[in-house]
Structure formats: structure tokens, C-alpha cells
Amino acid sequence: MKKYFLSLLLLSIFSINAQYNFQVAFPNLTFSNPLYLDHAGDGSNRIFVVEQAGRIKVFPNNSSVTTTKTFLDITDRVTSGGETGLLGLAFHPNFESNGYFYVNYTAPSPLRTVVSRFQVTSNQDSADKNSELILLTFNQPYSNHNGGCITFGPDGYLYIATGDGGSGGDPQNNAQNITNLLGKILRIDVNSPQPPLNYGIPPTNPFFDSTNTSIRKEIYAYGLRNPWRMSFDPNTGWLWAADVGQNQWEEIDIITNGGNYGWRCYEGNHAYNTSGCNGNYIFPVWEYSHSEGISITGGYVYRGQNVPELFGKYIYGDYGSRKVWALQYDGVNPPTNTQITTAAGPIPSFGVDQNNELYLVSFDGKIYRFIPTVIPVELGTFNATVIGGNKVKLEWFTVTETNNAGFTIERSKDGVNFKKIFFVGGNGTSSNRNIYSYVDEDVNYGIYYYRLKQVDHDGSFSYLNVVAVDLGLPKSFELKQNFPNPFNPSTKITFTVPDGVNNKVTLKVFDLLGNEIATLVNETKSAGVYEVEFSAKSVSDTAELKSGVYIYQLSAGNYSLARKMIYLK
């Protein structure tokens, strides 16, 4: 039986001299599930923001801008929710003259990835949605792990990041299979189509000369789980990719022609499922465990001018913990990694403008600009310990304080959605060591995340460290009532798996006649608390789910429990 211990996760000390932050870049603009930001490379200094539902918004790169224009709206052909939607955007290197740009989106019936080309109209802020030329499409066996990033390389070819097809653990072993396009980095030539294809295969692709017709010659690299974001460093030409991990490790890779990056044989540097594995794998240049975050978001090597201290460093973050790091790596010396700030909201993407200045795209609907900043509090340590078996004691101290009104303590069960639980007053301006503490009694079992929001007397604030503490594992199966309920179009279902159970766990949705609607979980789960999202929009390939009562059922061995939920359109 696997042993679990109460854990204390202590994050690094924040230094006032090494702290950076993001400020809202466009205070008057708010976006709906923004996933990506880019510029057109045409000298217009415009910003393009991709919204998950299938829209691209465009506006001048001006902090006082108050409105956006819809550059493209293809919501009529995009299925979105969870990890599906309009996921990627890339402008042709000659966009200024030919008006071509490319998108990567998820389409329904059957669920599939589509990579298409569109063209702008005579109005530079409006694209022709009827100009779509589909370049590439392939089916997705599950709704998660779609990758989605596309970008042009310095060679002029289009690079496409694809996930392993989803579920958990790559059950179809797609990432190591070079006869399909899942779990890969693809490279195609959009300028020299080879009929019947609407694109060409670059002759330097690793399998271009293969006589095996089953091998997909679009493949540039493989063995990836879910390379959600990738980018080229304009100075070195290196292709940086952040590959989202399974359940323990997140990794950063530098992608090379023909490279096999190990998944599902390895998760980061660690063996995962080595059955049948005998490849020559390329291991990541950096990895971090799930004590630091749960889902890596790749960024960019900073080549702007506003923050010279970070020039040449790879800036990336974690969607869940919201931490942002700077990784320094030159290919010769050992890499060094420094946490530089914590973002205000979940991080689906970074972006750069035409001057290579860095932006952070947040699921709070805002776009943030990367700036150096002086934090009014120099935090020493922030830690959490379990006391009495059912309470959490938070303790921290400050080295200096300037105009500090105090600290809002926020708590989360998933490391993403934080809520305020208490406010502790500060000491204004002080050069003395000040010690703070708080005991949280409103907890039960599982992992809890805490973060500090330092509030200045003028109302400004900064997010400081995040810590996590484990109060142990559940002793029995539980199936919670879904929330929200009724729901439209999605809801979340929480269940627990007790320690010592090794059965396969299934979570399925049925209608009242007993017809299976969806399988949400079908794998062996370790002890813990799990949350699964169910979307009515993505369960049927033939017809839209009807309003009504549905049953969701959790089963494992001899255990079974079902609850009702209501879908209202």
C-alpha cells in the first residue's frame, strides 16, 4: 500500500530586489475565456486576442483603448469548453502582402482538430470567414489534450502542436506512434502545396524519405503529452515547448528535428509506463513537481526592452498555482530557474507584441503587461502546518514593510479558484521583522492551497506566495452533488477515492432510460479528491443534449453510488 504523509510545501523567499509583476495592460477591455495573444507582424502595432468560443478580437496596442473589433467569428464551426475551442492563431510571415493567417480549432461530429487558413478582407480589422481553406484535420478520441498552438518558424514553415488524444496516461499510446498525428509537433509547408494536400511536406522533416506509407511525414518531433504552448526564440531559433504533465511532473523541452521526448514512457525525467519502450529519448531541460504547480503554460524567451534584467530568459507559468518563473538556459551551463511573481488569475497563455514585449493572458478576462515593480512588502517565509489533525496554522514574517495595510488570506481546494477567508492587519511602514499567524479551522481532508494578497493603504495589492498543505486522505468513497445544479452548459462533479483502493474507477452519465450519455472517468485512481467537468455541449456527436434529469454514477469494485442532476437549456 502506498503511504501518504502530511506534507508541508514551502515556497521560495520573495526578494524585493528580484520581484516583477503584471499590470492590467488594457483596463477598459475584458475578454471571454481568452486563450492567446499575438500581433500580425505588419507594423500596425495591433493586438489580436483569441477567445475560446471561436472569436478573434483586434484593437490598437494602446492602454486607453475602450473597444475591440471582431476580426474573425467562427463560433458556428467551433466546439468549445474544457480543453476544446479555438486554440491557436498564427499570421503568415508575409501577412502584410497576402493577408493570410492560420487557426487551430476543435470541431464537432466527429470531434476533431482543424487547422485552416483564412484571409483578411479589404478592411484590415476584418477577416473573411468564408475564405477558409482547411489544411489539416484529424479526429480526437477524447475531449482533452488537444494541444492547439501553431506558429511559424524562422524557416517559414508552420509548426503545429498536438496532444496525445486525451484521457489519462495515453491509453492508445499515440505519442510514440509515428503513424498518427497525436502527441507530436508537426511541420508543414503552407507555401508549396502538394496535391491532393493543401500543404507540402518539408524535405528536411525526419520521415520525409520513409518508404513506409503509414508513417506520417508531417511529424517533426514526437513523444509529447500535451504541448499546450510553444514559441521560437527569435535570437537563437530554438523552439521552446512546455509539455503538460500527467500527475507528478511538468516539463520544458527544446524541440529538435526528429526528437522523441519520451511520453508515455517517461513523465519528465521519470519513468511512467515503460512497457515496450526502447527509444532514444530527449529529456527536458527543466521540470518541476506538482508541489509547485499542476499545469504548465509555456511562454517566450524575453527579447523586449522594458525589463532588461530578464533579457534572454524563458518566461513561463503554471495555470493552477499562477506562479511565473524565469528560466535561464544557454545550452552549455546548467539551467537556473527563479520565481518572479504570482499572477492574479489562471494563466492559459502568454503573448508578445511587435516590439517583443511580454503579455500574460488570464482567465479572469484581462490582459496583463509585464513590468518591473517594487513590492511594498519583503516577505521572509510563508508556511502551513497541520495542528490537531484537523486545523491548519499559517505563519509568515516580513523583513520590511512600506505602507502595508495588511494581508488577505485566500484558500483553494484546486489551486486555481481562491476565496477570501480572513484579513490580517499589517504594520504600515516598518523595517523590523514582523511575525503573523492565522489558524484555519474550516477544513477537513485533502490538500488545501493558501495564498497571501498584500494590500497597500492606497488600495493597490500584490499576490505573494502560495503554499499547500495535506490533511490526509479520505477514508471512504464519496460522490458529491454536482455544482451548479441545474446547469447550462457545464457542471462540476466531485468524488473521493479512499486510501488502499486499487480498483478501476468509473464515472458515467445516463439518461432516465438507462442509456449511457458519457464516460467521464474510466481508470484506476489513487486515493484523493477529484473534480470532473461535464459539458452538455460535447457529449453527443449526433444531436444536442435535451433538457431534463440525468443520472451520474460512480463505481469501483463493489461500490456504486448515483445522483441526479438537471440540465436546463
Features:
seven-stranded antiparallel beta sheet, mainly beta, 1 helix, Immunoglobulin-like, 40 strands, single chain
Tell me the overall shape: globular
The helical percent reads under 10%
CATH architecture label name of the largest domain = 6 Propeller
CATH level-4 homologous superfamily of the largest domain: TolB, C-terminal domain
CATH fold annotation of the largest domain: Neuraminidase
The top-level CATH class of the largest domain is: Mainly Beta
Kindly estimate the percentage of residues that lie in beta strands according to DSSP: over 45%
Q: C-alpha Rg, in Å?
A: 24 Å
Describe the structure.
This protein has 1 helix and 40 strands. It has 3 domains: 264 residues, Neuraminidase; 94 residues, Immunoglobulin-like (Sandwich), CATH 2.60.40.10; 90 residues, Immunoglobulin-like. The N terminus is likely disordered. The strands form 10 sheets. Strands 1, 28, 29, 30, 31, 32 and 33 form a 7-stranded antiparallel β-sheet that branches. By secondary structure, the protein is mostly beta strands. Strand 18 and strand 19 form a beta hairpin.
SSE blueprint and pairings:
Blueprint: E1 8-9, E2 20-24, E3 34-38, E4 46-51, E5 55-60, E6 69-73, E7 86-91, H1 95-98, E8 100-107, E9 112-120, E10 127-139, E11 150-152, E12 158-161, E13 184-188, E14 219-222, E15 227-232, E16 239-243, E17 249-255, E18 266-267, E19 270-271, E20 286-289, E21 296-301, E22 314-318, E23 323-328, E24 336-342, E25 349-352, E26 358-361, E27 367-372, E28 377-387, E29 391-412, E30 419-430, E31 434-440, E32 447-456, E33 461-470, E34 478-479, E35 490-497, E36 504-511, E37 516-524, E38 528-535, E39 548-556, E40 559-567
Antiparallel strand pairs: 1-33, 2-27, 3-4, 4-5, 5-6, 7-8, 8-9, 9-10, 11-12, 12-13, 13-14, 15-16, 16-17, 17-20, 18-19, 21-22, 22-23, 23-24, 25-26, 26-27, 28-29, 29-30, 29-31, 29-32, 32-33, 34-35, 35-38, 36-37, 36-39, 39-40
